[in-house]
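Inputs:
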Amino acid sequence: MSAPARQSEKPLFIPVILGTPRQGRYSEHVARFVAGELAGFAGVETQLVDVRDLPMPVTGAGEDVKDPSFSELCMRADAFVIVAPEYNHGYPGLLKHVLDTNLKEYIHKAVGLCGVSAGGFGGTRVIQNMLPVMRELGLVTIFWDGNFSSVQKLFGPDGALLDPSYPRRIERFLRELIWMARVLRYGRENVPVES
Amino acid sequence: MDEHEQAKTSPDGRLLCPRCGGPMNFHAQKLDRSVDPATDTDMDGVLAEFHTCPACKYVHERLSRS
């Protein structure tokens, strides 16, 4: 795709989903950092989505408790970043509950996963555990991840990033996600499944 | 799946977006195994199809006709 053609494209919309409602969550610093980096790309719009802010009943499940505004946001999205802390090797229950409320809104859209952990593995285990869920939801995972190890040391109390290596790491992750988002949007809009 | 939502069809067989009326692209089929497999015994579930509107990004889901 040539550069002039890209300039005329509609901007990509890639929301960042902060996947934990817990008080004192360091993942919020991660999500804000990633959203800030994403906003620096030309032709990309983003928005931070906090699962804490979504009206999400827990007495039902799936599309029965779909939130119209979150559904509309997902419909508009070309890709997603999900920031998930690792809780006992797994993902937060509320994140799964929220993700399960949509399906058609995700089909053939890209997703990049950021794992957050207090230890040294950068949330790799939560990412591994999320991969089959992403696949079943119809999302397309990329082969880069965001790994945020020892997160309590990565950010200052005001949320300022203390490790200067992360912008470069996340740039590669986001470039891959943007490429996949662009390709999949072309496919969703132009390539029929039966041709 | 909103079973009440209907989409019209263009002369060339493409669905027309229920929101803006533009032609949609049929880009995916997905099997839902959580439902009664008796609904489609060949597939052990229900086959849904997904159509995206290039103009307004709306996605229409319906039971597959094939």
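The radius of gyration of chain A is 16 Å. Flag for discussion at group meeting.
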